Structures are given as structure tokens and as C-alpha cells.
Amino acid sequence: xxxxxxxxxxxxxxxxxxxxxxxxxxxxxxxxxxxxxxxxxxxxxxxxxxxxxxxxxxxxxxxxxxxxxxxxxxxxxxxxxxxxxxxxxxxxxxxxxxxxxxxxxxxxxxxxxxxxxxxxxxxxxxxxxxxxxxxxxxxxxxxxxxxxxxxxxxxxxxxxxxxxxxxxxxxxxxxxxxxxxxxxxxxxxxxxxxxxxxxxxxxxxxxxxxxxxxxxxxxxxxxxxxxxxxxxxxxxxxxxxxxxxxxxxxxxxxxxxxxxxxxxxxxxxxxxxxxxxxxxxxxxxxxxxxxxxxxxxxxxxxxxxxxxxxxxxxxxxxxxxxxxxxxxxxxxxxxxxxxxxxxxxxxxxxxxxxxxxxxxxxxxxxxxxxxxxxxxxxxxxxxxxxxxxxxxxxxxxxxxxxxxxxxxxxxxxxxxxxxxxxxxxxxxxxxxxxxxxxxxxxxxxxxxxxxxxxxxx
Length: 457
Fold this sequence. Notes:
This protein is an alpha/beta fold. The chain contains 16 helices and 20 strands.
């Protein structure tokens, strides 16, 4: 790690590199962004990837034709000065273990970006909702005439934006990035929520929490969710603006319970009323409050805030209504990759629901699954993916469960099970990596399966 270096010192250190041995681990999008950045400074690099043919190998070779490449899991033995890490590389990786034992400094793209870019930065993290919040904030800032740049965990990689002109950079940060980052600074940081996730990557839930909570020590101002005990109890920043739906007593921004649920209040005084059915889902209402807090700190005109929030129709693969066939509503929530996003989805409907769930559970416990299903309107469950037998053993004695070999079969079963005026909700609650490239590929497969099956009826 690079603990102890100031951002200014880190910039000076990197700028002086010429003969040092700097290792880039991971030759995907982030690896290519490192190559672009350091090639521009004519600083030599060494490259490593577990795969024999990494995705961005050809582009990187074009920039560094004479560099040393260690591919296909060949462990490097050179004495490196510094390591540039890609966010997908787990701390349990054998090479990372060796590097850590040798106390070789590890840098992230976020470390480098914060060291070289002096613009204002809003860093947004959380188990769920960070892409939605970052995207809406970017839209609001642009509408307000502020030159806003969006990047980070959401494409493109943040280092690709380092020379882009902007007044404010809106950065989505994952726990993977934050785990290794120790030289970052935000003018405003936001932790939306912290729930169990990515336990196949992080050594423990405590490590996952520590990664997210790093933002509490590197920000000028912070937005905190009072409904999230982990975030609320670990804030070390004096300049905090709170929001919450359940824990209203400690919240600056909340919803007025005595009026229509779309009225936002600031310290019990009416602030803004938003009319958008999409934002009526509980988790969207929480995100709406976080967005309002950020805009309040930035002194954004409330009319602009209202306009953008009322025009927002959601992002693909997030509680997205695909079609209504025979009065059955099909909803694609493929972005649901953990238990908390699944719980939020199934709590959103009062009509009878057929749920399609499953995938790679990433080591999560799903301790609250029974409780949340009992409280929901879910009547039938179709299980898919690597975890389907595990979920069947957990749920089968109490709930009406079926198993499907693939998503296409799950759609066919759901079509036969669902009745008029019901909902078919695809909210996997698991990673897509066992069957698909990513959640986008999974969501597109769901949509295609619906269309294919509908055309045969």
C-alpha cells in the first residue's frame, strides 16, 4: 500500500519515475488506462495477467511493444518499485500476497487521478444505487450549466478522464477500488448503504466495510444515510448532511409523513415535491434523498433538481418494465447482484409476484431471505444458476419453488405459472458470472427470452 504519502508527494513521486520497475496487474480496461497514462509520460511498465490472452493485450502492446509481459498465471519474481492494480484483482491472489509481504506500494487509478487532477470531485459508493445516483447527479449538474464529467466504476475508467476539462468530476467508486486506495480526496463523498456483498473477493464483511468507510477519512463534506447503521456509526467528518426514511429523527432530509410521500423536507420544513412513479420504489426514494443532499451542498437550483428527477425513467436492467403480456408485467432487475438489492425489489410490489432468482451467491449468507420473502407478495420462485440447489434447500420446504437449467427455461416456466394481473420479477440477488459475461448480458438474455417465448404463443 502507499499509506503515508500525501497526494502532492505521490504526484511528485510518479512524475520522477524513469528507471523504476512498475508492475501493472490486470490487462483489462483499467490496465489499458494505466498504459495510456504512463506511456504519455514515457515511463516504462511491466505487465501481468492471469489470462494468456487478456482483453486489452493488443492495445497495450501497441503502446508498450518492448515491455515484459507475464501472462497465463506466470508469477513474476522481479523486485518491483510499485504496483498498479486493477479492481478485479482480489487481495487473496497469490501475487498480491507476495507483493504485500514485500511491502511493495500498491496504487489504484483513483489514487493517481486524485493526485494529478485538481478539479472538484464527488465520490459516490455504496452496495446498491451508486450508478443511478452518479448518473442523475451528472445530468443535474449538466442541466445547471456546470461542466460535469462522469466516470470511475461506471465506464469509462477514471484515469482515461484525467486530462478532460470539467468543473466537477462525479466518480462512482467500487469497494474493489477503495480497498487498495490510500491517496484519495473528495470534496463531497457519499456512502449510500453498506450491505453484505462481494465476500468472494473481500476476506470478510469487515474488510468490505473498511473499504467503503475509507471515504469518511478523506472528504471535505459527506452525505450519510441515517437508515444505514454501519455508515452512521463510522462517520469521522464534521461537515455531514444526513438523509433517511426510517430514522427521521437524525436526518436532515427526509419525506414528510403527514403529506404526500413525494414531499421532501429539510429539518421538518418543506423543501421539494417530486412527482415520478419510478421513484416510488423504496430504494429509489432513498437514492432521491441522497441526490437532494448533494445538490443542496452544491447550491443547485431546486427547479433544475425537480425537473431532472421528474424526467428520470431509470437505467437499464434496474427495475425495468420490459413488457406486459396477457396483463402480466415482466420486470428486468438483472442489476440485482446481492441480497439487499433482491430484498428491495421484492418489497416493491403488492400484486402477486413470480420471482426468478439465483446465480453465483458470492459467499453471501442470505440470512434475511425467509423473512423478506414472507413479507413480500412473492408466491412462486424459479431458481437458476450455480446457487439454485442451495436456495432450493433453504426455501423449498416453505415456498413454491421450481428449478430451471437456464434463463430461457425460467422464462418459459414463469409464463406457465404466472396468472392474470401478476408480476414476473427477474431479480437474481446474485452475480451473473456463473452463466453470463455480466449483469448486462444476463438482462439482455432475459429480454430476448421473453420476446422469443412471446412470439411462439
